[in-house]
Amino acid sequence: xxxxxxxxxxxxxxxxxxxxxxxxxxxxxxxxxxxxxxxxxxxxxxxxxxxxxxxxxxxxxxxxxxxxxxxxxxxxxxxxxxxxxxxxxxxxxxxxxxxxxxxxxxxxxxxxxxxxxxxxxxxxxxxxxxxxxxxxxxxxxxxxxxxxxxxxxxxxxxxxxxxxxxxxxxxxxxxxxxxxxxxxxxxxxxxxxxxxxxxxxxxxxxxxxxxxxxxxxxxxxxxxxxxxxxxxxxxxxxxxxxxxxxxxxxxxxxxxxxxxxxxxxxxxxxxxxxxxxxxxxxxxxxxxxxxxxxxxxxxxxxxxxxxxxxxxxxxxxxxxxxxxxxxxxxxxxxxxxxxxxxxxxxxxxxxxxxxxxxxxxxxxxxxxxxxxxxxxxxxxxxxxxxxxxxxxxxxxxxxxxxxxxxxxxxxxxxxxxxxxxxxxxxxxxxxxxxxxxxxxxxxxxxxxxxxxxxxxxxxxxxxxxxxxxx
Length: 470
Fold this sequence. Notes:
alpha+beta, Peroxisomal Thiolase, Chain A, domain 1, CATH 2.40.50.840, 2 domains, 24% helix
């Protein structure tokens, strides 16, 4: 049996109230909220968060043979972004890592290729969506990531068996963006509705035939695409029960582009029951339909952190702050020089610490060293250390300070000295916080973020954020 072993969806902590857009400009916006990646997040860091959730939700010992990362908004061109995820997840060097990038269809394409293959594959999709102020893309889009561990029963218990798929492809100009452009351009929505309708119908019927199913046997159906009008129209043409249609989270998260299919599939699996057939329909330069059936293993599946919990635990972001984070409004920076670019050679020598947050523990005394050290501070033992992975260890704030002078893309900066569960103490930067509500004694967990960008080099490291939910 081949299919999905585990899944993880990541939704950033911040939300923009769409009504704030119209209050500022007199037009645009709408009802509900959209998710907003923080100033220190990009598609790579969000992908790491989704992948961590998927791997933490997987059965013990379930590891991928390869990692595929798909995004329409990569942090780097030329450089392989999947390699950064590989390092942050601390995968073995013999686990390959490749980018599937550029197009909105890349996410579903990577998933389809993995399901049709033989290896255990970790599919990570991530997107950072937006548009010009007052545009439909600005309000209707959202930021997020999804990750799916694909394999067979030899890799771990399959929670959703892959039944079959079909695609329909046709060249037409409906949504496009050239390299270097910060906004997508779209044709009139009715044109997309006309083009997508027949393609979805063709792919839907072909997938049902391949799986030997009828439409009324599909218990949950996910329909997603950046053309909301077309998605609504085709949903009514599938022949499934109306109550089978899955909430696309447009009112709370928005559409996260190439990541949205995996995000919604993870969300759906988190509440699915054994024996349910799930249909995934994606509209992007054609139509792709994938069919799954949940297994008995779904009953004992325990997601590390549900999409619903992340939606419920969000906090609003002022529209002005959103515009500054997106580069649409330039604010006065702190009166401190911007940091210099990082050293490639130093980053290479400290990869375990910088990307995977691995300290060292003295084998004799058990003393934890962060960052890792060769000489123990207890007993002075030399080169008698073992790796101490700390990315999933929580801690408690022992001391904290709010710095309004230090350089930051979004001041002020919150720093804390954290006492880690099981020993160890380290000063770290905090993120996803309200400085006014921070207190000593607060519980924190680690998250992979971007410290700054200099000379077009992204300086990735780990920050602490408050523990919210489970």
